[in-house]
Amino acid sequence: MSNLKFSKNNTYTREEIWSAAGMSGKQEFNFARTGYGRIDDNVFAFINIGFKGHAEKIFENKFDEETETLIWYGKKKSHSQQPLIRNIIDGEYNLYCFARWDNTPEFRYLGIGKVLDYKDGASVIDKDGKETTCIRFRLSCDDKTASHSVISDFDESFEEGLPDEGTEGRKKIVKHKKIERNTKLVRKKKAIFKKKYGKLFCEACGFDFKNTYGARGEGFIECHHIVPLHETKKEITTKVDDLALLCSNCHRMVHRKKKWLTLDELTKLLKNGGAPTRT
Ligand SMILES: [Zn+2]
Ligand SMILES: [Zn+2]
Asked: pTM for the complete prediction?
């Protein structure tokens, strides 16, 4: 149910969005009445801009037509550690943004919002006039914007040899990173791995986030695509077997230099403590 076909700037009622998402019958409460509802991996945001909606409070939601940047306040008491919000930030869920500027049933489709940044604890006034807090997002609805998680990964882990903006090589690296972070495949890989070994750990060094970080580390591991897409000419479809689970340290070392390491090379480095090997 990915890639739902909505046309930018067309208007849709909640009802129409509900059925476009493949649902029938009565809308779920969140979907029908609140600021956002989720169906599988898709979150639908219904954003009131500049007037009071059902919740009878004004959030300072804003949309800049020029840059397609959206300022969006989550529900009361929402914050970045809640699973749904976390998945939006990590790009695990598609965030379909619909907005309206008055109290009509139609919302204008703005696009899929990519998180540029967010702030916990933004203060808002609830319907009783009391101050409360929620998360505030800055989103880009511009199709050309890669998600925040992809971009920030570049800065930190591709220190050398990142091709120029707009070049084919860079696009392929973007694609590579997208596969590693965003797809269902990653979840499938983790599920298969966990079923097989009973836990998640780094395939190179054995690091287990849960062992070290307890509940906070549970379920966390990075996914590495072992085929460097930017080095292959042909189009390939990614299979679960093309993915390896790595801890953040190992993953970073793989990508740190222009020539990415293979898993074998990485394992060898670890065995030798990084010292040059004598043959
Ligand atoms: Zn590792
Ligand atoms: Zn990787």
From this structure: 0.56
